[in-house]
Backbone:
């Protein structure tokens, strides 16, 4: 492991500042109480950075991010910046961090907390016990492929285009992350592609097959992405680990999120080869509820726990945070997005954060 104990906090836009504030308090409490030695710094990214500096990812932010071991990000974007040129939209800040730090491995666990079975849009029996890990390739594929753009043809008509591209080495490195994750879980890996239509995913499938020989204890299967979307809402418990490219992973992870009751519960980790990582909730900046103290901070708090686990190998501290989240759900506390019935006590963002702190302190006393 590393001696680097730097944590960079990027609040971002919309509900970002509200949810990150709660996660930061949680981190600070475990840091103090368990003497973890973490050091915190902040920087601007996304729309806030555009307003302050003109660009979504200021050089200073990228520099601080490079020097941090763990980055905790809220969310970026909002209607205020939607009309800007694609090259300087808030989302570019996020994509620039992902590519600038080569955070190619995006882990999105979709776990149903038993307390939230009723909050899922699917029947409790279909989702109870759900525990899927989506491994999404994050720095390649159609998100980054060249050429890309919007051009005007000779006849005056405009043409938009992107390129879906993966090299063997890109496929291999994300494949290894997925096989290794499967080895630590139930040893089943489903690779999702569109190999009936797209050559790039024919190659993807071939490489996954090749890798499978190195991981004989893992059972590899393949599924077309359209079927995978259907199976996720039909019988999601058939999956253990799923591995897929950038865009399919984006889409499937939102679908998987809903199975767990709310996208407000889903954390994520984006890692590079050295274990440096960026941690963010899977949901976006939710401008419609920004500043109203309504958003669910649990995905961000759980992302902070993932940071302790994956970038700092502080597993006890991570377990503690995850248990504290379980405690507040046991108490029946719910932000509006995970409310299921009259019996639930609906709380605000800050009340939910405070409840997690209470639960942490109770466990630490
Ligand atoms: C996500 C988001 C981002 C993505 C957007 C905000 C660029 O949807 O992290 O899933 O598409 O990767
Ligand atoms: Mg997404």
Residues:
């Amino acid at each position: 492991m590393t001696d680097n104990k730097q944590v960079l906090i990027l609040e971002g836009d919309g509900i970002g500042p509200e949810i990150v504030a709660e996660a930061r308090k949680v981190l600070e409490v475990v840091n103090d109480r368990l003497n973890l030695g973490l050091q915190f710094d902040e920087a601007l990214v996304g729309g806030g950075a555009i307003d302050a500096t003109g660009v979504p990812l200021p050089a200073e932010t990228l520099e601080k991010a490079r020097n941090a071991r763990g980055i905790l990000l809220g969310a970026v974007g909002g209607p205020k910046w939607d009309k800007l040129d694609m090259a300087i939209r808030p989302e570019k800040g996020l994509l620039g961090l992902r590519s600038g730090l080569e955070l190619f491995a995006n882990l999105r666990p979709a776990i149903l907390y038993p307390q939230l079975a009723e909050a899922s849009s699917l029947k409790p029996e279909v989702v109870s016990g759900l525990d899927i890990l989506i491994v999404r390739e994050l720095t390649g594929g159609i998100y980054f492929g060249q050429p890309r753009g919007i051009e005007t043809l000779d006849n005056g008509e405009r043409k938009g285009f992107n390129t879906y591209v993966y090299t063997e080495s890109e496929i291999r490195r994300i494949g290894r992350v997925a096989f290794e994750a499967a080895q630590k879980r139930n040893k089943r890996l489903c690779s999702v592609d569109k190999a009936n239509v797209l050559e790039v995913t024919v190659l993807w499938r071939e490489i996954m097959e090749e890798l499978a020989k190195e991981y004989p204890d893992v059972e590899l299967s393949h599924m077309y992405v359209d079927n995978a979307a259907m199976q996720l809402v039909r019988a999601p418990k058939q999956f253990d680990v799923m591995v897929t490219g950038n865009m399919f992973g984006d889409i499937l992870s939102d679908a998987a999120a809903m199975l767990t009751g709310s996208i407000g519960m889903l954390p994520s980790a984006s890692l590079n080869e050295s274990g440096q990582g960026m941690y963010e909730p899977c949901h976006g900046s939710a401008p419609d509820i920004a500043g109203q103290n309504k958003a669910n901070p649990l995905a961000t708090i759980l992302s902070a726990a993932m940071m302790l686990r994956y970038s700092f190998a502080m597993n006890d501290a991570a377990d503690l945070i995850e248990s504290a989240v379980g405690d507040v759900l046991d108490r029946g506390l719910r932000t509006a997005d995970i409310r299921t019935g009259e019996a639930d006590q609906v709380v605000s963002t800050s009340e939910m954060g405070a409840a997690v702190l209470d639960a942490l302190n109770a466990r630490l006393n």
About this structure: The first helix runs from residue 16 to 33. Residues 91, 94, 250, 282, 284 surround 3-isopropylmalic acid (ligand 1) (CB under 6 Å).
